[in-house]
Write a structure and sequence with these properties.
The complex is a heterodimer. By secondary structure, chain A is mainly α. Chain A has one domain. Chain A has 9 helices and no strands. In chain A, helix 3 packs antiparallel against helix 9. By secondary structure, chain B is of the alpha/beta class. In chain B, the strands form 2 sheets. A 6-stranded mixed sheet of chain B has the order 6-7-8-3-9-10, with helices on both faces. In chain B, strands 2-1-4-5 form a 4-stranded antiparallel sheet, covered by helices on one side. The two termini of chain B are 37 Å apart. Chain B is globular and about 55 Å long. Chain B is 40% helix and 24% strand. Chain B has a single domain, classed as Rossmann fold, CATH 3.40.50. In chain B, helix 5 packs across helix 6. Classes of the chains: A mainly alpha, B alpha/beta. Chains A and B meet through helix 4 of A and helix 2, strand 6 and helix 4 of B.
Amino acid sequence: MSSVKSSPSLQGASGLAGALLGPITHTLHEVGGLVLFLKLILKTALTTRGNTPAILEQVLSICSRSLATVVFAGTFVGAIIVLQFNAVLLVYDAQIFLGGLNTSAIVREIGPLMITFILAGKIGAFTAAELGTMRVTEQIDAVECLGTNPVQYLVLPRFIGIVISSLILLALGIMISMLGSTFVATFLCGMNPLQYMSTITRFVGVWTLFCGAAKSLVYGLIVGGVACQKGYTARGGARGVGTAVTQAALYMSLFVILANYITSNSLNWIHDFLGAALGWVDG
Amino acid sequence: MSIRFESLSKSFGPKTVLKNVSFEVSTGEILFILGKSGMGKSVTLKHIVGVMKPDEGRVFVDGDDVTQLDDNGLADVRRKCGMVFQHPALLDSLNVYQNVSFGLRTPQYTRSLPRPLTEEEIRTKVTETLRLVNLGTDIFDRYPPEISYGMQKRVSLARTLAPGPTYLLFDEPTTGLDPITTNAVNDLIFELSRKLKVTSVVVSHDMQCALKIADRVLVLDQAGILALQTVPEIKRSREPLIRDFLAETLALLPPEERAELEAHS
């Protein structure tokens, strides 16, 4: 028997390829798992009825639990963005655009991301831990054995609750941010509040609002999907629940950042297409 | 009317847990499945209710092949088979009353009735079922974390009994319980099986309990069946693993039974 030994350079190359390909294949595996889980939720949503009370209960619970954090974060994020924009705009003597730029940035980008990360940290991690504990203590098996579909009874209300809540909290977060930013613009940047608000409609139109809502919806699907999937498929006692929560937190963040790039590009492309094809131009 | 396993095989990755396992559970009997940890006892049980799918082989419940059933068919099998898990597995967000009545509100259960139960009928049924497991209505409004582990186990058993299953499946029902509660739960299994005339399959590693209440004992080892015998046959067995299990229980047995076992060893 003769053994074939690869050269050190070949081993190094294969090790490098493995190190590069490993995370990519792992991420693709995770994306695949999420897509299959979302398909299962969609199938359950389409084939079952009577989920509305449980969904409303979840929406109420999620919104009430996140309200204080959204108000706090919304106020200060709005204030911070105003201060940053103001410093730059003053250099170009363009402070008049502060309200428009600030609101556009909040509606398009910062608002959806802020709400998503609040939801991911507070509700997503909680959901993954709750479902994970239910899985490892056989509560999910018990529900199934009692003749109830666990996806319908436990997953669907939590998933849709997170998606709907992300839109409600986005609207709330934007309003709070606008209040916070107007306050800072008035008292720290020396602007007249009416002057500050006068440019908002020039920068923020129906399209901007649509972009914010679309992004928030996509992020909500990701947070809800990842949290429920990781919790529902947890294995192996307390350690398994810990792993599920850690993985949920990691993949919610990674997938949201990836989705942000994809949705931003897609929405810009759609906007350009509508502009070119229909002559439709909106902020 | 029985549960039948035909050439069942199940692997998890490289580990084969069950290989070509075949046996039948007769109507009205209490069958104990014994074996060391990781020998596929719980896996065997979970195949009966279709929570797990086999790699090969079939499982029949009242003639229906569980491995081939759709969701509705599986729901019907699960209505017939009440499963008590190793953990109490009570839903933490529901109180005791809501947990016990859970199975009485499912579409599968209500479909089997001429009309859905009224809230008053559900309350009566929950009260009766809790009485069967020696619990009162005073714990109706308490949540699982507010009652002791032993009580949680009883509530879990009541939840399983409420829809009136034909088969009772127990997955290590006495794990984590003190010796007194263990005896109480074992007595309860025996009484309920006889009183309600249900067929019971009990997964356990408690040989003492098996000798006390089982009609037959199935011993799993090395992914297969080592023995499927009545209690007297098990007591006379020369298999080293069975002798080891019996030796563990010797000190706990009454003197006459201990003498009988020692005579066979």
